[in-house]
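User: For my dataset I need records formatted as: sequence, then structure tokens, nothing else. Please produce one.
Assistant:
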Amino acid sequence: QVQFAESGGGMVQPGGSLRLSCAASGIIFRIYNMGWYRQAPGKQRELVASINSDSSTNYIDSVKGRFTISRDNAKNTVFLQMNTLKPEDAAVYYCNVQTLRGNYYPWGQGTQVTVIS
């Protein structure tokens, strides 16, 4: 049974930082490309950052230079360091695999990120 457990969200002011963690179980973590996704109210879920099995990374333009994705294969965990947060970054953040076909395992509960003055 595949499970993702996200944590580390919270409420910060603009310009603040948060570090998200996602512990995966039930998969051979090291072989998967992993992604951090977010969904804001009234919007579709979007891929924010991904890290391949070789640890190469990709980001959407709006978070480049502010967010850093990393992974620890020994702990089956993927991280998202978020700096210089903006109100538009507010969303529920999820992790899941990242595949060319867009297939996903069941989503976890996510972790809420709130950015408010």
